[in-house]
Each structure stands twice: as C-alpha cells, then as structure tokens.
User: Fold this.
Amino acid sequence: MLEENYKTFKALNDGPMDQIEDMKEVVEQVLAAEGYAEQRAAKMDINDFLCLLAAFNAKGIHFTS
Assistant:
C-alpha cells in the first residue's frame, strides 16, 4: 500500500518517479535513522508518531486513510 501511495503521490505532483526497489527496506532505514527501529507502537506517544510522519514525508512516503 505504501508503494502504491508513493507512486500516486509522485504522479499527481509531477515529480520524478524515483525507483524504490524495496519499500520495506526504506521503511526500516527511516525507523533506524530516527531511533525507532526497536520501539513498539503501543509504547510510543503522539510526538513520536509525528516525528516519524515528518521523516517519512521527507523521504517522499505519504500515508493516507
């Protein structure tokens, strides 16, 4: 789903279609870079989630509902 959202976002915003080989690897890299690789979601607060959201957005990965 993340990969499809990424492709849709790029297509709608006329951005260059960067090729992401492995979305799981990208997600793991973002989690590690922000220090959340070993965190459990149940133990995180809203500020942790906002930090992660900003980090994913900076990588061009956007979440939709």
